[in-house]
Amino acid sequence: MLKRFAFGLVLVIAVLGAVFVGLDILDIVEVYELPLPVHILNTVFISTVAVPVAYIVARRSEVAASSQVLWLGCGALALGAGSLLYGWLPTDELNARITVHESTALIASALHLTGALLETAKPRLSKSGLWRKPRIVLLYYVGIIASIALVTLLALRGVIPSFYMPEEDSLLRSAVGITTMVFFLVSSFLYLRTYSKSQTAFYLWYSLGLLLLAQGSIFLFLGSVEGLIAWIGRAAQYAGGIYLLVAVLSSDRTPVARKIGMDESG
C-alpha cells in the first residue's frame, strides 16, 4: 500500500503539472497567482528536512560507508541551503535569489548524479574505513557550503549573468534548468534500475524522490514565480525532500549497509 501511494503521488503531480502547462500553452485558462509565503514553506519542507538527512549520513557509519548515501546527504544539503537562501537572502533583487536557488539546485543534481554513477560503476569500498568517519563526511559538507557561499557572493555582486529577466527568456536559466532536470532524471532512472534488481526500500524512495525533484525543476522553470505551475513544482520538491528523508532512514537496510554490519561484527 505504501509503495502504491509513493508511486501514485509522483504520478499525480506529473499529470497535474502537465495538464496546467498544456492549458497555459494553449492559453485556455487565466494565470493564477498564489502569493503564499515561499520563504517559510521552503524552509520547513526543504531546508529543515535536509538537516536530519545530512545528520544521519554523517553520524551513522553504515550510511557514510555507502557512496550513494554519502552523495544523497551532500545533495540534500546543497538543495536545503539553496532553498534557505532563496527565502532569506538579505536582498530585494529577485534575480540574485533565483540565481542562487537554481545554481544550487544544479549543484545538488550533480551530486546526486555522482552517487548514481558511482553506484552503477560498483566501486570497491575502502577497507580502511575512511568513508565511515563522520569528520570525512563533514569535510564534504564544508566544501559544498563553501561552493554555495561563492555562488551567492558572485550572484549578489552581479558577476553571474542574469537568470531572471521579466517578460523575457534567459538562455542561461534555460540551460541550467534543463540540465538540472536531466541530472535528476538520469539519477532517478539509474536508481530505479537498481531497485528493480534489489527490491530495497532505500532505492525505491531515493529514485522516486529524485524523480519528484526533476518534476519540481521543470515546473518551476516553466511557471511564473508565484504561478500555479511553479507551485506544483514546489509541491514536487517538498514531496521529494520527504522521500529522500525516508530513503536515508531506510538506508541501514541496504545490501551495502548489511554487509558492512556483518564485517564489523565479525
Draw up the topology in text.
Layout: H1 2-26, H2 38-59, H3 61-64, H4 67-88, H5 94-121, H6 134-156, H7 171-198, H8 201-222, H9 228-249, H10 255-265
Helix pairs in contact: 1-8, 1-9, 2-4, 2-6, 2-9, 4-5, 4-6, 5-6, 5-7, 7-8, 8-9
Give structural notes:
The protein has 266 residues and is mostly helical. The chain is 78% helix and 0% strand. The chain has helices spanning 2-26, 38-59, 61-64, 67-88, 94-121, 134-156, 171-198, 201-222, 228-249, 255-265. The longest helix has 28 residues, at 94-121. The model is unreliable at 124-131 and 256-266 (pLDDT under 50).
> How many distinct folded domains?
1
Structural class based on helices, strands and sheet pairing: mainly alpha
| Average pLDDT number | 85
Work out the oligomeric state of the chains in this entry: single chain
- Provide the low-confidence segments as ranges: 124-131, 256-266
CATH topology: Rhopdopsin 7-helix transmembrane proteins
Enumerate how many helices there are, as a single number: 10
Tell me, briefly, the overall form. globular
Beta-strand content: under 5%
Q: What characterizes the major β-sheet?
A: none
Distance between the first and last residues' Cα:
37 Å
CATH architecture identity: Up-down Bundle
List keywords for this structure.
10 helices, Rhopdopsin 7-helix transmembrane proteins, mainly alpha, 266 residues, disordered C terminus, globular
Summarize the structure.
With 266 residues, this protein is mostly helical.
